[in-house]
C-alpha cells in the first residue's frame, strides 16, 4: 500500500516538472485527477506548527504577514534507518541534512517565482523529506487565508489567496485538512468556512483543532472533538503545538510530541480521547486514508490516462512533426507537403473527393446552353444576307452560288461562338482555382506553415493562369479553323439548290429576291448548327487537355524547379510556423510525456487487492 503514495508522489513531481499545476488551460490536466491532501487554515491558526509536528522537524519559514506564498507539496518518505534529509525537485541530487537550510531555500525559491513584490504564485514547490520518524504521506501546504494585506503586498492578495485555495480544494479528488484554533469561535474559522462552501456535507474534510492548551480557563473543546459542535464524516483530531517560547528556545520536536501526548493523557476532559489525539495520530490517519483513496481511484485514473494519451497523440499527429534542422530535411518536408496537396487536388479531379464533377457540368450543361442561346438568326436576317451577298459580289455578280457571300455569312456567325468557348475556359479555370483552395484547406500540414501555404497557393494559381492562356489559344483556334476551311461535302448540293432557286440567266433583280436570300440564310444556319454540334465535343476535349489534364500532370512543376534553387534560409522561411502552433506542439509533447510516464508507473506498481 505504501507504494501507492510513492506512486502519486512521483506523478506529482512529473506534473510540476512538465508544467501541469492543475490550473485552467487548454491542455488536459493529470494533477487534478490525483488524490491529494490540502492543508487549509487562516493566518495564526497553527497550520505551520501542525505540519512541523507531523514531520518532526522545524523547517517552514516564519514571520509576520503572509509567509507561505506558493503551494508547498510536502512528500514524506519513511526510511528504515539513517540520517534525515530533504530534497527539492528544483535542486535535483542535492541533499539538505540541515533543516534550517531547507527553511531558507523555501523562502528563496518563493522569491524566485514571485519576486520581491510579496505576491503569490500557484506554481508549487516540491519538497521531499526522508526520515525514520515520519509516515508515508503527501500534503499540499496552501497559503494561509487572511483578511488584510500587509505593507508591500497588493490589495488583491486577500482575494487572490482565497481564489487559489478554493481552486485547490474544490476538486473532488482533494482531501481537505482544515486547521482551526480552539481559542477562537469555530463559527469564525476561515478553514471551516471555505471547506464548507466546497464540501458542504463534510465528506472530504478532516478537522484539526489547534491551540487547545491556550483556551480560556473553564472552557474546553470536547464538543468539537466529539463532533457535536460541528459534525464531519471523519473524527476531529486535536493537537498541541509548540508555543512561541518553545520555538524560540528550539525545543526538540520529539520532546514536543511527548509533551503533547502527556497533555491529552493528563487533562481530565480529554483523557478519554487520548488515543485519537496528537500530531502522530494525525499523520497515521491521513496516511492510511490517502492510501485508501488512491487505491480506489487507480482504475479510473488508468482509464483517464489511456484516453488522454490517445487524444494527445491524435492532436499531435494533426499538428504535425517539428521542422528538421538541416537543409535536406527542410526540402524533404516541403516536398512531402506539396505532394500531399497535389494528391488531394488530383483526388478531387478524379472523383475520389467531390468537386471534379463541376467540370463535367460545364461541358454537359453550361457550354451547350450557351451555344443554344446564340441568336444566329440576327446574323441571317434578309437585310443582312442581302447586304453581305451584294458586298461579296463586288462589281461582278456571282454566276451560280454566292460562295464569298456564304463565307462571310458563316464567319459572322461562327465568330460569336468564341464567347461561349472563352467562357467555358474561364469557368473551368475558376473551378480549378476553387479546388486548389479546397485542397490547401484539406492539407493539414499547410495549416502548420502559413508562409508555405501562401507560396504554394500562388504558384499553383500562376500555373493555372498559364494553362488557361494555352487553353484559350487552343480553343479559339478550333473556332477559327472552322471559319478558315469549310466542309465541302455540305455545299455540294448547293448548285442544285441554286438552279432550283434561280437561273443564272435571270436578271440581277430576280437573283436577289427574298425567296433566294431566305434559302441562303437557311443553308448557312444549317451549316453553322452542324459546326456548333462538332465544337460542342471538340472544345471540351481541348479544355480538358490543356487545363485539367495539364493541371493533374504539372501543376507544381515550376514551383518544384524554383524550390530546388532555394538556400537553406529560404527553405526555413517557408517553414516558419505559427508561433501558437509551435507552442501548442511543445505543450502537447510535454503533457504526452507526463501521461505516458504516469501510465508506465501505475502499471509497474503492485498493490494489495
Automatic annotation (TrEMBL):
GO biological-process terms attached to the record: cell division
GO CC term, one of those recorded: microtubule
Chief localization: cytoplasm
Keyword Thylakoid belongs to the record: no
GO molecular function, one term: GTP binding
SUPFAM superfamilies named in the record: P-loop containing nucleoside triphosphate hydrolases
CDD domains: DLP_1
One Pfam family here: Dynamin_M
Subcellular location as annotated: Cytoplasm, Cytoskeleton, Phragmoplast
Keywords, comma-separated and alphabetical: Cell cycle, Cell division, Cytoplasm, Cytoskeleton, GTP-binding, Hydrolase, Microtubule, Motor protein, Nucleotide-binding
Domain Dynamin-type G: 31-299
Domain of life: Eukaryota
Occurrences of domain GED (ranges): 517-609
Gene3D superfamilies assigned to the protein according to its UniProt record, in alphabetical order: Dynamin, middle domain, P-loop containing nucleotide triphosphate hydrolases
Entry keyword GTP-binding: yes
Family: Belongs to the TRAFAC class dynamin-like GTPase superfamily. Dynamin/Fzo/YdjA family.
Protein name per its UniProtKB record: Dynamin-related protein 5A
Organism: Lupinus luteus (European yellow lupine)
Amino acid at each position: 500500500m505504501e507504494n501507492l503514495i510513492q506512486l502519486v508522489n512521483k506523478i506529482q513531481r512529473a506534473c510540476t516538472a512538465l508544467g501541469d499545476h492543475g490550473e485552467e488551460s487548454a491542455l488536459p490536466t493529470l494533477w487534478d485527477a490525483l488524490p491529494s491532501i490540502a492543508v487549509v487554515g487562516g493566518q495564526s491558526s497553527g497550520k505551520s506548527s501542525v505540519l512541523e509536528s507531523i514531520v518532526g522537524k522545524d523547517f517552514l519559514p516564519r514571520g509576520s504577514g503572509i509567509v507561505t506564498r506558493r503551494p508547498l507539496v510536502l512528500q514524506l518518505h519513511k526510511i528504515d534507518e539513517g540520517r534525515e534529509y530533504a530534497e527539492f525537485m528544483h535542486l535535483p541530487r542535492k541533499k539538505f541534512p540541515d533543516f534550517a537550510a531547507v527553511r531558507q531555500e523555501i523562502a528563496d525559491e518563493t522569491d524566485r517565482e514571485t519576486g520581491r513584490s510579496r505576491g503569490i504564485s500557484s506554481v508549487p514547490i516540491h519538497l521531499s523529506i526522508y526520515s525514520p520518524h515520519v509516515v508515508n504521506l503527501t500534503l499540499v501546504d496552501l497559503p494561509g487565508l487572511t483578511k488584510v494585506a500587509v505593507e508591500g503586498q497588493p490589495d488583491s492578495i486577500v482575494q487572490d489567496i482565497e481564489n487559489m485555495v478554493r481552486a485547490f480544494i474544490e476538486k473532488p479528488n482533494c482531501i481537505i485538512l482544515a486547521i482551526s484554533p480552539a481559542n477562537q469561535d469555530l463559527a469564525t474559522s476561515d478553514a471551516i468556512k471555505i471547506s464548507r462552501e466546497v464540501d458542504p456535507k463534510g465528506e472530504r474534510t478532516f478537522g484539526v483543532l489547534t491551540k487547545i492548551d491556550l483556551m480560556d480557563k473553564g472552557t474546553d473543546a470536547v464538543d468539537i472533538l466529539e463532533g457535536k459542535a460541528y459534525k464531519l464524516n471523519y473524527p476531529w483530531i486535536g493537537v498541541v503545538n509548540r508555543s512561541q517560547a518553545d520555538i524560540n528556545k528550539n525545543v526538540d520536536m520529539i520532546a514536543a510530541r511527548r509533551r503533547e501526548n502527556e497533555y491529552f493523557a493528563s487533562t481530565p476532559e480529554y483523557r478519554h480521547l487520548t488515543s485519537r489525539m496528537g500530531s502522530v495520530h494525525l499523520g497515521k490517519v491521513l496516511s492510511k486514508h490517502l492510501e485508501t483513496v488512491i487505491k480506489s481511484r487507480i482504475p479510473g485514473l488508468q482509464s483517464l490516462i489511456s484516453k488522454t494519451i490517445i487524444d494527445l497523440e491524435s492532436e499531435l499527429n494533426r499538428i504535425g512533426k517539428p521542422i528538421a534542422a538541416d537543409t535536406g530535411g527542410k526540402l524533404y518536408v516541403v516536398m512531402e507537403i506539396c505532394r500531399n496537396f497535389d494528391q488531394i487536388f488530383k483526388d478531387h479531379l478524379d472523383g475520389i473527393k467531390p468537386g471534379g464533377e463541376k467540370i463535367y457540368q460545364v461541358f454537359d450543361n453550361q457550354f451547350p446552353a450557351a451555344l443554344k442561346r446564340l441568336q444566329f438568326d440576327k446574323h441571317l436576317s434578309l437585310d443582312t444576307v442581302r447586304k453581305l451577298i451584294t458586298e461579296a459580289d463586288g462589281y461582278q455578280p456571282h454566276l451560280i452560288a454566292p460562295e464569298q457571300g456564304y463565307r462571310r455569312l458563316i464567319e459572322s456567325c461562327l465568330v460569336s461562338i468564341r464567347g461561349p468557348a472563352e467562357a467555358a475556359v474561364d469557368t473551368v479555370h475558376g473551378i480549378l482555382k476553387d479546388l486548389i483552395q479546397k485542397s490547401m484547406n484539406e492539407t493539414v500540414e499547410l495549416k502548420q506553415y502559413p508562409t508555405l501555404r501562401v507560396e504554394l497557393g500562388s504558384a499553383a494559381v500562376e500555373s493555372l493562369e498559364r494553362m488557361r492562356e494555352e487553353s484559350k489559344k487552343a480553343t479559339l483556334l478550333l473556332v477559327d479553323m472552322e471559319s478558315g476551311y469549310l466542309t465541302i461535302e455540305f455545299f455540294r448540293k448547293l448548285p442544285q439548290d441554286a438552279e432550283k432557286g434561280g437561273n443564272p440567266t435571270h436578271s440581277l433583280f430576280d437573283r436577289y429576291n427574298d425567296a433566294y436570300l431566305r434559302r441562303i440564310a437557311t443553308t448557312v444556319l444549317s451549316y453553322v448548327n452542324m459546326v456548333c454540334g462538332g465544337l460542342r465535343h471538340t472544345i471540351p476535349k481541348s479544355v480538358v487537355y490543356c487545363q485539367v489534364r495539364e493541371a493533374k500532370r504539372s501543376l507544381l512543376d515550376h514551383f518544384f524547379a524554383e524550390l530546388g534553387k532555394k538556400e537553406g534560409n529560404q527553405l526555413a522561411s517557408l517553414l516558419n510556423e505559427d508561433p501558437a502552433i509551435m507552442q501548442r506542439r511543445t505543450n502537447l509533447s510535454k503533457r504526452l510525456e507526463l501521461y505516458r510516464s504516469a501510465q508506465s508507473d501505475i502499471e509497474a506498481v503492485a498493490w494489495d487487492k
